[in-house]
Design a protein that fits this description.
By secondary structure, the protein is α+β, with helices and mostly antiparallel strands. It contains 19 helices and eleven strands. The protein has a four-stranded antiparallel β-sheet with strand order 5-6-4-7, sandwiched between helices. Strands 1-2-3 form a three-stranded antiparallel β-sheet. The radius of gyration is 34 Å and the shape is elongated.
Length: about 575
Amino acid sequence: VSTQSTGRSKSTMSACGKLDAMVYEPLGPDSADVERNREIPVHWMVRRYVRGLSRWRYMVLLVFVVLTGGLGGLAMGFLNKCSLAMNPPSGSQSYRDNDALTAVFPSKNPNSATMVVLLQATDERSILWKNRTRDFTFELQWHIMNSSKYSKFVESYAGLYTEELMGVPEEQLIGRLVNKQHDISIISITLSVLMWDQTAIDFSKDLVQKFLDANQIEGVHTVLTGVPAFVPLMTKIAMQDMERADGIGLPIALIVMSLLLRSWRVVLLPLLAMGISMSMTFGIMYFVAQAMSVMQAVASLMTSLLIAMNVDYNLFMLSRYREEVVGETDGQVLTEEDPDPEYPPSPYCIGSDATEDGTSPNPNPNGTSIVLGQWIVSDPQIVAEAEAVVTNVVQTSGHTVATSGVTLTFCFLGLLLFKVDLMRSYGIACAVTLICLLIVNLCLIPTVLLMGHKWFRQGFYNTCCPCFKTSEGGSRGKLWERLGRLLMRPTAACIALLIAFGAAVPMAMHATDFDTSDSMSFDLPRGDDVTAAYKNLESTFGDGTTNPFTLLIKMSKGTNLTTPASNYHGIAHVLDQVVLKVPHTS
């Protein structure tokens, strides 16, 4: 039973287990005593907040409709704005070195787009013995250089046969453009634009669609790799991840929630909150992506966080709403056969004494009547009852949701202290997700409950599942309450802590032994041809093939490369010998 200063809400259940009706009875002269003895003191701000939502409910809905429509239209734009850009932090050594390079060579950018066409023999014959490979190399060069749209951006084109044509000895090409087994060869293409620039991305799409797909070599597998080729793939995978999460994770969560809440009607609210929160979150992140680099994996992370926290927050709010509506006393659902011991049974509900036409023989003195549990008139009483119920929901579960959301938001905002855009984008995305979830679950969900209270309250049912059913012993018979009461005992709590600590210590001992890597292969989807080709390229020719280093040599004052004192050729020879000894696949 939920008691408020404005009245008391009470529910009854018929023998079939279906909620027949809830009657709102104004308190009598003893309302002051009831107010003083309430178990849940309602804060005046919560009461005013709920009344404000009830009064301005249509305005609240209009605001969310506008936000969903306006920001939802930018959601796809956000996915297209995501990139694999990993700029060095401002003020770091890498940042200063890049500035020094571009200051001397403005057209030379260390983040220039480099793409690699990987050619791998699918049979036992060497790739050098395939005449079609030579023709493919020059046809691809001709296709690129004669492109009116992209030829002006091409800085270099290097393949096995183009280098041989320029007189480079074959032994110098082994390990750089062909492996020792002569079954894998690469063609390197470098553009003058950044690797995450839209021009480079469009170039990679054009190259695949107009040439590679139409000019496959028999016995040779050809794949385009490199950051510009990865961006469309990552966008596609991000969309598939969201569809998979929405299609698998969300239905399972909703089924479990339906069993817990014993109503399919209230389960519609998490779906509503999910759609609106996603539209708002992705729309806001569109503007964030305009100001900073946002990784492709952020979209998948946001979707997972949206599903998890949305279900969690709705479960808090709606489970409390069910308790308020059903009116449990010590875990027992009030029924016509088992009335409230403190108050007599209400004469305004349908029970065993209902007439054949479904109407109650005891009409409300104010003219209110109930037909099969459906209210016909007295909307003011429905509104007052809904406000009393939702006020308790916001006062209790709403406080828990707000505390959890605000705490997690500040935790994620702590990632802004990192200087790397990768970590900062994760922090901003998660914080924006939680803020939108808080707004929706603490503003929209209570508003919908206020407006549809009459419909939602009649959708609760009893379940035959023993996991969700109350035993004769009252609330103590519930599984989770029994476990909670057990853990409240000091001995049991200490044992639980020792078990948790004992399980965590062996794992924590290996926390510093993890192998770390900055390989881009971890950012690519598993099982894709492009990912497999990149891993093959990385292990055979090294990651520097698509992400090369640039060595800047600055002569001392008074000398230049043409003076004998510079000994530039000697320095270059020594550097060549040193670089060739470095394991290129490490």
